[in-house]
Amino acid sequence: MFLIKGMPIRLLQGRTNELQTHSNADDQVLTDPRMASGMQEKQYTPSLLSFFIYNPKFGPREGEEEKKILFYHPCDVEKNEKIRNVGLCEAIVQFTRTFCPTKPAKSLHTQKNRQFFHEPEGNFWMVMVVRNPMVEKPSKDGKPPTIEYQEEEILDTVYGAVLQQCYSMYKLFNGTFIRAFEAGGVELLTQKLEKFFYRYIQTLHLQSCDLLDVFGGISFFPLDKMTYLKIQCFVNRVEESLNLVKYTAFLYNDQLIWSGLEQDDMRILYKYLTTSLFPRHTEPELAGRDSPLRPEVTGNLLHYGRFLTGPANLKDPDAKFRFPRIFVNTEDNYEELHLIVYKAMSAAVCFMVNASVELTREFCEQLDALVGPQLTLLASDICEQYNINKRISGPEKEPQFKFIYFNHMNLAEKSTIHMRKTASVSLTSVHPDLMKILGDINSDFARVDADEEIIVKAMTDYWVVGKKSDQRELYVILNQKNANLIEVNEEVKRLCATQFNNIFFLD
Amino acid sequence: MAADVHSKGVTWDTPNGNLAPVEHLPNSRSESPTPGLVEGTEPGASQERAMFAHTQSFEDLTADVELTGSHHSEVEEVEEEQQGGLEGGVEGGVEGEGGGGEDAAVVEPKPEVQAVVREKEEDVTSETWRSHKKHVFVLSEAGKPIYTRYGSEEALSSTMGVMMALVSFVEADKNVILSIHADGFRVVFLRKSPLVLVCVSRSGQSDGELWRELHYVYYQILSLLTLPQLQRVFQQRQSFDLRRLLSGSERVTAGLLRLLEMDAGLMLNATMSLPLCSTTRNVVCTSLQAASSKNLVFSVLLAGSRLVALIRKKEQHLHHTDLHLLSNLAASSSSFRQGEGWTPVCLPKFNASGFFHAHISYLEQASDLCLILVSTDREDFFNLSDCKQRFLDRLKKRNVYQALQEALHTPTYPVSQVGIPELWHFVYKSKSSGLYTSPELPVPYRTEEEQERLMELYRYLHSRLHHPTRPLRSIYRCTNTENLLGWSTSGFELYLCFSPLATKALAMSAVTKLLKWIRKEEDRLFILNSLTY
Questions:
Q1: Which of chain A's residues have a Cβ under 8 Å away from the Cβ of B475?
Q2: Cα–Cα dist A149/B6, whole Å
Q3: Cα separations in angstroms, B182 against A98, A342, B198
Q4: A111 vs B175: CB contact, 8 Å cut-off?
Q5: Dist CA B20 CA B18 (whole Å)
Q6: Which of A170, A454, B60, B412 has its CB 3.0 to 4.6 Å from that of A466, i.e. a possible disulfide?
Q7: What separation in angstroms does the CA of B318 have from each of B54, B328, B436?
Q8: Residue where a domain terminates, one of B373, B394, B409
Q9: Runs of H (alpha helix) within A348-423
Q10: Cα of B356 vs its chain's centroid, Å
């Protein structure tokens, strides 16, 4: 069965660091088809109730509580209500310190909602409150409908990861909280938070978060050695000729091939590129020739290269040469960089230049002239190689299984459960309950360091297999209802042999 | 589920409508057990009627206790009188003739009291106190401490005040606080007006399991007071110090918490029976059946925590929770060994609103055989004492007393009897009889620490199989230290623990072999006949 669900789109307006959003209805109502006749039960998916950031040190005295609050969504909540809710979070955190001073609360479960706490920097707390999914059942005699909250349906690990991602994304474009505070006091900080989160949290699609948000991994493009070397050569050549470029990242088909950034920085940049920047630019390309969405042809017939950030058209005399700024290595060097994203066909390259340098028309023209033709050639090379490899590996059959693979060491992730993402929807090919079982197994693995394997048979007779070995995790869903444990084991062994022939999994 | 707000009032005997015990004829038992077994035909299924109120897993524990059951009118009449007496006791303030007072007199702390005292004296700001695996707190709605497992209630009054503040803060929004999760531990709240129970656990157990344990503590308190009395004292004075009525029961609660960690029966909602050859068991059962008295409701013969025989009044079923509470009560006090004990006790799952009267005694002072006779009449002591004597005389006359004593020497069996290589341990529960069997703990699990770890593994399998919204048919878990298999069907639940060398193929064949073995041994391992007076 195929379920369509909203895919998180993070539409970040590159040039101004501002976020553009497709505002979506807060409550997405799905009517359960089984109940559609007669009863008319309404199923509500989890949704964001509130999101706030506070620092208890900013208003320690009674009567000054409001000063603690740096950001609060929704903003139209009454002041006392805000103070109350922040107060509860403080009390919960303080209470849990009674039992462990160093590891306070991460989440609060209540019947109606779940709250997630995250302290990304000392004394700065981010809180996300998610309403539990619920079923509204109409009752007879004109009474108000009864509401049943499904508090077991939300996974802590998934939404905890979503909250951490919120911070990482903020930090990527704004730097740390404390730096902003040091530079311009509470005023600057609240301004920055307001500007970023006001739009960003509207792009959180909480109903479609799953295990992949926990991993926050990077999909790598599989490539033969020769083509990989060609790309490496290209990167080195460009860095040599344009010595302003400090870091480079190379992607093909939304998948990463090469990156000079630290892993954690690349992880969040990758998230931004694949869920926000690229989808925003592929939609016009997919649109028909005469569609108004189609960008103006740059007029350069020598290559297909163009800037995704910065100037849309180099020939335009009014073109602005401003690029989004990003912050990397915030732990040690704290670097601020210009982010130049340049694309030719399916190949995209990110060039990062120190922010203290002013980028000029000359630099951009030089880059366009140097990179455009080479990248166009390289993109068609990769495409060709890819097609040859695909032909060798034989025609694709619909396999009996779906899997998710994640490697903690290089953040590599691969999923055949998630269909290819388009700009506005992502498809998962399995039932949400099975996705939650994957999440359960993942949290069981997280509790122990050692290698483990868990095989379960769900009530729907699907088999779910989880394997963890030396920092790698593999989850397989098998649709062989009559198989027994031994056959399932054999099937997974075959899968490991064909897909992951170098990886040893505990047997 | 923890909240009063949305738990449905389920009557005591049918926790789940379609699970009512089915009567089966012996000839409907299938020869070769398969997973397709219908409930009631699995190995160990009781042949005639079920002796327990039927329970599937822990779900029904969260159901509210029935206050005004119309099922046992006869029993209740007597109980009403008893409540009158109790009220007097409470109003009098100190130990009068009331339940609390009498109980305190019976449960005299003797040797183990040292340990309890030591735990009570612990410094609640110390690292040792903080790092306990499982804290349990009980407080009143006024935020007054009633019980803490470690440290003293006085020292923790501010902590408990905070707990109550959190509970009422969330309730102010017409919401219910369920739990708080942190790295490495969680805090679980259970609201049972007029009480609040809180558990702080580092054991990795799920919220659902911790709620089950807190329910047990709640029922333990009810068993000493009854629900109406508990509500009455707080209605009269919100700031009432309940410790006055519970004094002397700390060791019973401590014993219960220990049991929750070590005994699979409380997790499974089942009881283990003492392996006994069927002829001996039959004589014991019929002898106990014959030793009846007008007001007797239940006669229970226990060997430690193992059930030897259970006779009940027609149409009345004992609930596992009540049996575990009774057996824990008997085990928690050494005074029953010295002579015959007589104590009022409420069986909260049977009827939370009234007291029964339990005659508790050991067949011999040095023996592990404990006889519990539950009556509706508070003046029944001498009648029941006579019942016990008649039972003993009959056992001796029919020459089974010796056989019974010998069976006590082998209260369990080694797993090697089953003859499955690499199988270290297992737990098998027959759902229709509510009984389970399990071999003795083998070498790797001899220490208390390891035993607890094995129980944790079983609890993990159990909680995954019985997940409230995503239950599973089976789960296989392979770790560096053992291979585990959990399997739940409509007829039975099975938990197996293999050495890490076992393969999946071996595990699969082991299941079939084990079920055959249990079928062969079911006469000895289970109580197949449920007798009434």
A1: 454-457
A2: 10
A3: 12, 43, 15
A4: yes
A5: 6
A6: A454
A7: 9, 15, 16
A8: B409
A9: 361-392
A10: 17
Instruction: Delimit the CATH 3.30.450.30 region(s) of chain A.
Output: 225-285+303-393
Residue type for position B291: A
Domain that holds residue B328: 271-409
Distance of CA B409 to the CA centre of its chain: 24
pLDDT tens by residue, B102-152? 443 344 444 455 566 567 778 888 888 888 999 999 999 999 999 999 988
- Considering B377, B409, B441, which residue would you say is the last residue of a domain? B409
Q: Across the interface, do B478 and A458 touch by the CB < 8 Å criterion?
A: no
What is the domain count for chain B? 3
Say how many C-beta atoms besides its own lie within 10 A of residue B348's C-beta.
Answer: 26
What number is the average pLDDT over the span A404-411? 92
Per-residue model confidence as pLDDT tens digits over A290-339: 444 444 444 556 778 889 998 887 878 888 888 999 999 998 889 999 99
The dihedral over CA atoms of A11, A12, A14, A17, expressed in degrees to the nearest 10, equals 160
Position B86 in a domain = no
CATH number for the domain harbouring residue B363: 3.30.450.30
Pairwise CB contact (< 8 Å): B169 & A88? yes
Q: Cβ–Cβ of B478/A452 closer than 8 Å?
A: yes
Per-residue pLDDT tens digits for B161-172? 999 999 999 999
Which H/E stretch holds residue A325?
Answer: strand A325-328
C-alpha torsion angle, residues A351, A352, A355, A359 (rounded to 10): -10
Characterize the bridge pairing of strands B531-532 and B306-312: parallel
Same domain for B214 and B289, yes or no, is no
Structure confidence by residue, pLDDT tens digits, B269-293: 999 999 998 889 999 999 999 888 8
Q: Which of A92, A151, A489 sits opposite B180 (nearest CB)?
A: A92
